[in-house]
């Protein structure tokens, strides 16, 4: 007969350093797992502290408070009679480790440190932790006295061990280890481990989920086994949004999948699986032969079983059927991920709402539509009875439970928390002003419409009085230097006014608190530096700063239909323009004309620079093969050299760029994802540019 076990994994919206709140969510997940009859609960990586503590992991208090919370967990009456896999940092022999704590009934069974750390892209785990790097090595760990008082234990096993129960063997691998060439689950499967747990702190990135899920399904499709994947979800205080999607896979088949994006703080998924399915799946001769050459793991023996006792057939225990994997389209990802990130930021910052400078262009339109999506998610969660969301929504609008307010309409909710402003000048067009007004009306934002020509003139006159010189726009006979300076006055004044209105609009409306200023510079403009330093790109947070213009256009087309907002078509039809120069009969400012390259080309340059790690010369060679004969070698060389020229002279802007939702793998974010100097030699005359010119000359000669 089969050995049926019910297993649980989860996604938790943990918050860095919110020790008590994190513990509360952990306990809630355990309660839910037990309610579904689970005998094992797996949680996210570093769930007691929250994954994103960064340099706080270097502080002794972080480890002290982790043990204090873990002691409470061990003693909690709701955390008994279930095997627990909990993540927290541990100091062993004065070395910091990222660990899994395996416990059962008020007793720690062993501590499993992470073997291989994530240390690229957004991750810097080796700044705080040391990888164990000793596969199958186990030694003793002296427990803190506060834990000894709870469990009666003075020491436990610490290292790369596995747990042997009365009916199966369980092993853990943590996040990054799944992505390594020699992942631990391979040797574990050959040594007879049937259940693998993976506790992760994996962030959302557009089109990334399929990579993660493919690795998980392929792991057990090749090796056999039951794989439980837990992940953090939400914004825990940084640029990243952890996108949940807990998963249970048996022999390559998905039997449980949680949501990737949601406002709920705790999501638990369970599945009932048959251990015998794993054993029969591994009956291949190759599996048996290779298992004989695999070094064994030390087993920590536990005197309990995950499956129910008894030899008689129980018709009430039904194995969970396989199901297809659910993926969101990139447009849905943009609608959901940044919206959830904004909600977490709003509720945890205790702000009174958002203020967005609404220009009538597609970028600020995209930010506004993402806020609208957030409002839709809030209303949906309230309709489903999520009391945590209802509580946060009431606080966000300045009400309490006594008021009985529950959001039922996203437009009405937006009217309370979302504020927009069109800041026009003599260079602004009727069309952009009209689009901004109509969009604000459809979304429901508290909208202001103003002209700031008097402020622009006042600043310009200060310069005239001091220097005796009057700068002119290029169309009026001014130089490029004058033209750019006059544009920047308008751009920077919009930032000043945005913060003024963000601070005072709640007061105007009879409320306390301030608003978070939202930015709306896309990833391509940041990469090229096509923005004014300290203009409206300078804000508190930016939900689209990691998203390309191409993807934003596709998102707006999706939102037009999905959210029934016909006004969005006018944004798609409009030519992108900054509207910082005077409009004449023969000249209308255009973003792509200003930049000398298209947004599609910028995305290509960005991916080649960051993902393919190309400098100017190697980028030119790649693009020569891809773009000829559509473009000549000279044209390709000019585009590549121009891109690197503007990238170099504008790199300094990335040092002060607004914290943005990380969504794109070629983001130029200088915080920790894309580390480059901000004083770079002129790339038009660099050695690489000379090599490009040599190749062009050779091709011309041939």
UniProtKB/TrEMBL annotation:
Q: Which GO terms describe its biological process?
A: NAD+ biosynthetic process
Superkingdom to which the source organism belongs: Eukaryota
The chain positions of domain CN hydrolase read 5-275
Q: Recite the UniProt keywords alphabetically.
A: ATP-binding, Ligase, NAD, Nucleotide-binding
Alphabetical list of CDD domains matching this protein = GAT_Gln-NAD-synth, NAD_synthase
Gene3D superfamilies listed in its UniProt record: Carbon-nitrogen hydrolase, HUPs
EC id: 6.3.5.1
The pathway it acts in is: Cofactor biosynthesis; NAD(+) biosynthesis; NAD(+) from deamido-NAD(+) (L-Gln route): step 1/1
Q: What NCBIfam families does the entry give?
A: nadE (TIGR00552)
What family is this protein classified in? In the C-terminal section; belongs to the NAD synthetase family.
What protein does this entry describe? Glutamine-dependent NAD(+) synthetase
The organism named in the record is Lipomyces tetrasporus
